[in-house]
Every structure is written in structure tokens, then in C-alpha cells.
Amino acid sequence: MMDNLKELYQQVILDHNRNPKNFGKLDPHTHFSEGFNALCGDRVDVYLDVSDNKIQNVTFEGSGCAISKASASLMTTFLKDKTVEEARELFKEFQDMITADKNDAVDIDKMGKLAVLSGVREFPTRVKCASLAWHTFINALDDKNEEDD
């Protein structure tokens, strides 16, 4: 099972890096934040259109490693059409998944394609790459624009 997840991890990361979903500036947008990972130079801007307590649209721009870009791409596909509360819960579940012990089981049914990013647990220095867009998303929701928190 874990070998299949590792293989899927590589395929999904490469696919979303080459062909990121929802890449580009969202205009108009209601929320925005910039994120920066000083350790590796990854940068991401997250744009949100939130109305009626629902994420109507979410896009990103930026540059960085394949994990950072793939995570941002996957994030946008999962957050679109979620309520703000559902999105915050997904953020927490994602953070818990990528920071858990590498031997902990991943609930693939619950996490869907996001489960492939659990592979970063094997490389602790890459956890920040996978979480950059997510932290930037939360900062955008909270109308914060903090770099590398």
C-alpha cells in the first residue's frame, strides 16, 4: 500500500507542478496574502473570492519547488466551493497529516488526492514546502499578510 502511495506521490507532484490548476491572479478577489519560505525561496500569492461564507474561487501565483507548487494546485481544487469553516477544518486536517509520524496511517478516503502529500513526512525539511500555500490561504482568510510565520 505504501509503495503505491509513494508512486502516486511522485506522479501527482509532477503533474500538478507541470500543469498547476487555478494558477494566476484572481480579479476581482476579496482576500489576498503573500507567502514566502525563507529556507528555500518558495513564494506564493493566494487570491480568494469569498461571499456568503463560501469560497467561491481560489487561485495562486508564485514560484518554487515542485512540492510547493503541487500543494498549492491541489489546495485550490479542494477549497473551491467549501464554506469557510470547512476550509479551516481541511487546513487543520492537512497540517495534522503532513506533520504526523511517517509511520502513521493516512485516511485516503477522507483526504483524497491530498493524501499523496503525506509523503513529505519522510523529508521533514519539505513539510514547509507543502504547507506554504495552506498557511498563506489561512492568512488571506484572516486578512493577514505575514511572510514566513
Description:
The protein has 149 residues and is of the alpha+beta class. The protein has one domain: Alpha-Beta Complex (Sufe protein. Chain: A). It contains 5 helices and 3 strands, in the order αβββαααα. The longest helix has 17 residues. It is globular and about 40 Å long.
Brief sketch in words of this structure:
By secondary structure, the chain is α+β, with helices and mostly antiparallel strands.
What are its keywords?
single chain; 149 residues; alpha+beta; Sufe protein. Chain: A; three-stranded antiparallel sheet; 5 helices; 3 strands; 44% helix; 17% strand; globular
Write the layout of secondary structure elements.
Layout lengths: L1 H17 L12 E6 L6 E9 L2 E10 L2 H14 L4 H16 L8 H4 L15 H15 L8
Antiparallel strand pairs: 1-2, 2-3
Helix pairs in contact: 1-2, 2-5, 3-5
Helix percentage = 40-55%
Query: How far apart lie the N and C ends?
Result: 35 Å
- Under CATH at level 1, the class stands as Alpha Beta
Name the shape in a single word: globular
SS-derived structural category = alpha+beta
**CATH topology title:** Sufe protein. Chain: A
**Biggest sheet descriptor:** 3 strands, antiparallel
- What number is the mean pLDDT? 90
Unreliable residue runs? none
Order of helices and strands: HEEEHHHH
Domains, number: 1
- Please state roughly what percent of the residues sit in beta strands, choosing from under 5%, 5-15%, 15-25%, 25-35%, 35-45% or over 45%: 15-25%
The CATH architecture can be named as Alpha-Beta Complex
Whole-number radius of gyration? 14 Å
Strand order of the largest sheet: 1-2-3
